[in-house]
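the five lines:
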Amino acid sequence: MSVGIEHFLTVGALLFCLGLAIALSKRNAIGVLMGVELMLNAVNLTLITFSRFAVSERPITGQAFAVFIITVAAAEAAVALALAVSVYRNRETVDVDQLNLLRS
Amino acid sequence: MDGFGVTVAFWILAAVTLVAGGGVMVSRNLLHAVLFLILSFIGVAGFFVLLSAEFIAMAQVIIYVGAITVLILFAVLLTPRASRDNSETVWALPGMLLAVCLAAIFLFVVHDTQWKTVTDAPLLTTQDLGHALLGTWVLPFEIASVLLTAALVGAIMLTRSAEEEAEDALA
Amino acid sequence: MLFLEAAPASAPTIDEAILWAIMLCPLVAWGLIAIYVRKIPVAAGYLAILGVGAACVLSYVTLFNVMDADGGIAIHSHEWFSAGDLVVNLGVRVDGLTAVMLVVVTTVAFLVQVYSTGYMQGDAGYGRYFAHMCLFTVSMLGLVLADNLFQMFIFWELVGLCSYLLIGFWFHKPSAAAAAKKAFIVTRIGDLGLLAALLLVWTRAGTFDVTAIQEWATSGEPEGYIVTLFALGLFAGAAGKSAQFPLHVWLPDAMEGPTPVSALIHAATMVAAGVYLVARFFPVFEASHDAAQFVAWIGAITALVAATIALVQTDVKRVLAYSTISQLGYMMLALGTFGYVAAIFHLFTHAFFKALLFLGSGSVNHATNTFDMRQMGGLKKYMPVTYWTFIIGSLSLAGIFPLAGFWSKDEILLDAWRHDRALWAIGLSVAFMTAFYMFRAIFLTFHGEYKGGQPVDHHDEDSHFHGDPAHPHESPWAMKGPLIVLSVPAIAAGWLAYDHLFKDFIEAALPHAESHGSTFEIGIAISSSVVAVAGIGAAWAVYMKRWVTSESIRATFAPFAIIFENKYYLDRIYEDLFVRTIFHRGWNALLQANDRYVVDGIVNGSGRLAREASSRLRVIQTGQVQSYGLGIVAGVIIIAVAVITANPL
Amino acid sequence: MELSLLVFLPAAAAGVILLLPRSMEQHSRWVALGVSVAMLALSIQMFFAFDLNKDGYQYVVDKKWVEIGQFELRYILGVDGLSMPLLLLTTCLTVVSVLVSFSITLRPRAYFASLLILASSVVGVFVALDFMLFFLFWELELFPMYLLISVWGSGRKEYSAMKFVLYTIAGSAFMLIGILVLAFAGDTFDIRLLSAEGRIADPLIPLGWVFFFLFVGFAVKLPIVPLHTWLPDAHGDAPTAVSVMLAGVLLKMGGYGLIRMCVTMMPDVAQDWDVWFAAIGAISVLYGAFLTLRQTDLKRLIAYSSVSHMGLVLLGIGALGNTGLVGATYQMLAHGLVTGLMFVMVGLLYERTHTREIARLGGLARQMPLIASGMVFAGFASLGLPALAGFIGEITVFLGTFQKYEWAVLMSIFGVVLSAGYILWMLQRVVFGPVKHEWDGVTDQRHWWEHTVVIGLVALVVLLGVYPDLMTEMIEPAIDSIVLRIEA
Amino acid sequence: MNSLDVVGPQLAVLVAAGLVLLLDSLVPQQRRLLPVVALLGLIVSALWTTSWVGRGDYQFLFDGTLALDKYSVFFYYVFAGITATVVLASIDWVNREGRGQGEYYALVLTVCSGLMFLAASRDLITIFLALELSSIPQYILAGWGKDSKSSEAGLKYLLLGAIASSLLLYGMALIYGITGTTLLPEIAAAIKADGETYRGLLIVATILLIAGFGFKMAVVPFQMWVPDVYQGAPTPVAAFLSVGSKAAAFAVVIRIFFEGLDADFLSDDWSMIFAVLAAASMTLGNVMAIVQTDIKRMLGYSSVAQAGNFMIGLAAISVAGNEFTLGASAILLFVAAYAFTNLGAFVGVIAISQRIGSDQIKDYAGMWKRSPVLALAVAFCLISLTGIPPTVGFWAKLYIFNAGIRADLVWLVLIGVLNSVVAGYYYLSVARQMFMGDAEEDKKFRASPSITMALGAATIGVIVFGIIPMPLMSAAQDAAEIFAR
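prediction for all of em together
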């Protein structure tokens, strides 16, 4: 029994969709953020898989991409949390269900 | 990739990663969810090792586990206990259904494809990565640095309290 | 132009300029009155008389000229405008028919203008009146002179306009305004037929020229039904103008206009235009026996219907109006029985004596301020001139030998006799009724005791009546003069029938003159005379001697009387049933509802629909962030599924 | 060069008017009058200098303008026998509408500027020979119209103005597609080239659809039933001058477009469709006439009668023969003058009585004999009395179409009776009848410009009624070339 | 070639951002200078770009990850102009809000540099980074206001943006997996070589890219954030979002799809997707805009509809030969036109709502009497948005419909023109409100000089290019020429 590209991609896809499900279903903004981080991780996993398996002149590309994604994820998380704090100051909650001043 | 060890490692890592991910989903408490998240991140890092991307694995551990989750933990701890609820919204069910559909599509195309792959793992060292980052992708690299600065500045401004701002305005 | 050669070699030698001048004289008068002298009434009157008088003189010049040429035809045509294949000419045509009509129109018009200077004295619209009269004369002359159908149509409509303006002359009277409108619209319904005929003839024959159309119709080239349709179209127009059943309803109402107007337009000239039109295209009717038959029967019915209604009228002018309709029916009857000459001859004589009668009634009105015979009586001693001229006119109309009416009516009855005995019988009964109602009118108006007339309403600022109805008096010379002059032809015009003088002259206008035999038969003459005398006698018995009271006659024939008094309910059917109920409240209201609720409803509704959709769609914008995320993911899935389904891997 | 001047002079004058200081705002009317008279003079000069013996367009200006992708839009102006009379009509009615607006006191600068821009754009529509330039002018006319109706109008003016604009935009939306497809198929926007035989080959969508799209755009303007409901609203609520322009000129843009674009560029389709033209035309004639009979507001009444009369234009076009087309063109001219006169009369009436309710009016012939005479004249002109302009157009359309569609014409001639009905009934209720003392104070003697306008229009209506050759001589050659194209 | 020279325009902007930050902290009493410095940076950037045009030395640098060509130059100008207008329009608001002024301008400038990078990059990694460089500061800016609406808008924008960029990243990862590269020309070559075998995967990847960028472009069904964020975000930021990020998204989408994914077997699919999305966006955006009462929200929906219009150009690819670039040049023209027009509208909204303190359309009644020039300028912008001549919006619509027709997309153009009618209704309703409505108060007012300048620039652009569209058109055609094949 051998493990091929499909296996890794499958894990990546499943993790991605799991992250998506979390992001779409959690009430707490920070929970949503966690889902997004999982999705990004899944993307990284996919990239590294391709970097390992894909026919390419520059296989390092995938790894480089992953580095950038990690960086951006960090920045995004920071801003997200800052915004969450800002919302919390105004509304005393980070519950996205409560964020409905802007609608219809 | 052949070999029993690899196979076992794959399945274990897959199980850890996905189950931990599921844990994030089902945890009612945000703190538990964060812990599951860390576990899942570590699982992914394990995959990176398995795929011979050791530097990325390390970065994953340091940045994700070390920085991001700590940030999240801070945020969780800064908010009162009432906000640590990690329950679902009314949109949970359709959200999950859609995620399942999307997964089905992804899996379908992934398995439908005849992959052309290299048999041997390319020899990629951290040095190669360094050359790539400072060679071909020097521009994104610089952009990333600007991006981090901007995010920092922005995050600081957003989180400053009213008193600080009043102080600032006086200056 | 092609058919110009068809003109006989012995064409009149008259200058074309004279023909145009006949039209131009009153036109210039009209223009001057309209632009300059509206405010100087006296000048307007004299200017109008001058203009029409000049036209009258020129008409006689033309008549003698044509007589010299034995009724030959002269045509002068010029291109007016062209639009693509359509080329419209403007021209004049002179033949016997035209010349007779010219003389009739200008003579009567001249006398009526003179009369009007008296009758209309002091009216606020004195200048306007003469302007309209001039314009009418122009139009009528244009119609008579026209050498093609298009031009005829133009003047035909202008005549209608003038009729409208003159009927509605006292526009502040609601009845006058309504009558004017009614006259125009009803005649326009007839004009539809004329218009259709115009379209048909141009499409099929490619010409408007009278001569060419006559040749086309008789050439046998077009299918019979086309000719019949054309003829019926022409007749529809004629029926409108000449007040033939069932389009006659406007004429009695038209009596709302000033009486001289009634005399000129609604007795002598315009209403005769229909007869003229049919006569002008007589060969077309000859070519289509169906159409001719139709014309004859419509004429007969009109004559009968109008005569019966005239029996029960109480307004002297309306008696005359129905009498006019009845006589026009006679003329049509003659044309339908191919009595071309008889019809024109009757038109000719009728113009004079009917104008005389109308002017006489105007004179009576001038004295009593009313037309209602029930308020008159015994006027004989106050107004002898009016009385005697009225008697002459009535006798002529009744067809008493040897007055003008006798000759012309006799010819018509003769033609009817030869053609269809039923028509003859109707004609004869109408002759009886004519004599009866005319003398009924005379006895009621001039004999017996004076009943006081209509008191003057001094609060009515529009009234220009300046006599005293309580003490009637004879009219001034301006009015008496024309009455006297008109009684001359009313007596003597019939003698032209002697020696076929009139007949030969008129028939020259037809492309192929056919003789219908003798124009006099003693049997017919005697029968009609007997009937006429009987009518007079009956009227004498009822209204003078009162052997039988009119009330008892009415009671005996109650159903008929009611129908006659209600004018066969035609007005009610037209106005209340058709126009008001079916048309205005029904069909039009339906269309308006359609416009408002369906057409505009769709327009506004689509707007409302968009707003509604917009409001409904707002619901999806819940403000909940994850529902937006769901949207994104759902979008991805739907697109993926759609693309893969549409274009399988 | 003259054409450019004619198009841009009023626009420039509008700019000048807008720049006038407030203290001089009452002078804006004199500027507008001066410019419109100058336009009229120029167009009259052009009319008489027009060479009747030459084929094709005259006074052509042709300059490079904008490039879109592979091909270019050009600035081409020119007139032929079809557009020259309409151009003259436009300049003529511009003077009229400036004159009837002389008493405007509400924001005169903006008003006259809008009026002049309107004139500019309408002139542009009639002289543009580049399809996109045509479309531009076509759209440009919206703003001034919108402003004029919604600011200086009455009643539900905003609703009406919006309805007008949306209808037009909807129509021109379709038109734009048609233009683009045609231009793509013919590889040019030049109307002259597009009209040439064999130029439009292999369009993206069937040519029938292109035709339909263009037709919708023009039909809204014409307007035909059932795209007409904007017209009564717009007329009902517009100020007098705008009604004059709207009925007199703007509706003609639809008929002009139909002849110049639809029929000339796609004669084959037109021949498949002409029966629909005839049918819709006949229906419009009758429907408009029937509805006119129900109107209680004078201006709405005239508006519906316009629907009826413009149906005749469509009927004439449906004949696709030279007589019918000349008739349609003539009918446009006549209707422009006659309805313009009608609206002027109603406007004068309204200025004095401040009502357009037919039921409230009556007996005005006593108090205002001149205006009453004008109304009667206009009424008879409108019902197609011979010797007046309307008759020639009407009868020519009937004659031209009868050869081809007898039934349509036989339907339409009922409009003749109906028009007599509504006009005379209106006159009976408004001008005639007993004097109403409510209107005792009113007088028809007021300003010189009112008389000038009325007399001028009356003279023109009579002139066109008795001397049709003045126009037909010019129209005929242009129509002949179109008919040649149809028959080819 | 000095590589610093190549990124000069971006560098100038970023240096200005740094200077603004420094100036703010070192010389806090001279805050009035901050926007001036920012504007100077933008001017320098534009001058630098101009020097490039002068040299005409177009090339690819950084191993082909960055392109300096006519296309990017076009967008450099557009973004510099947009940012300058936004800076001008922000001055009043920033002064009033009182929260870190230097930081605000620095972030705006950072976004600008990100947008510029986005337009110029031809490598997926660079594109991603540039996208984030423009997005993350925008999230912050959207939440910059102190009220809860603003922070709600910021958080919503960020959460959805993160999800969208994750989808985008997954798509990019798949493309990388299929082709083994992230450089667009190489991707194109690889797909043309043996892309057919990966068709399913490529389609999914394409759809994910569309989703990711569609979010930025604000097309259905990725548009739902738009009205909420526009309404909640500070108005200058909303203006920036509506114009800047949309333009950049289209810039990069054109580059990716026309340069990287233009293989025939693929382009048929995505042009059809774009066509359907275009139709949906136009219709939904317009229909939903009808009943809006808040002008910013209305402009949000309208921007969705406008994105649909843009997209006709994307769908119009299926023509071979020279016409290939017609769709691209149409979008470029539309981008420029839309920049003028929508910025003008938003700046007008800023000017008006600052005075009347409301974003409700009904409160715009009688603006014509209170501030005629302002009302006229806004009206012109609204007319241009409707696409009625003589405004630049007309030419943009004409051009894009023309492209659609040429690509045999008559049905789409038909939907487009019909939507113009609906759009006309609600745009003109606002104009009507301003001109015909009765003001509750008729106190006259004037906009501040900076806003007047911004609005003036935008409106003059709208009118001048409406009358003389040729320069803009030829610029767009030039820029799109790089895609000619």
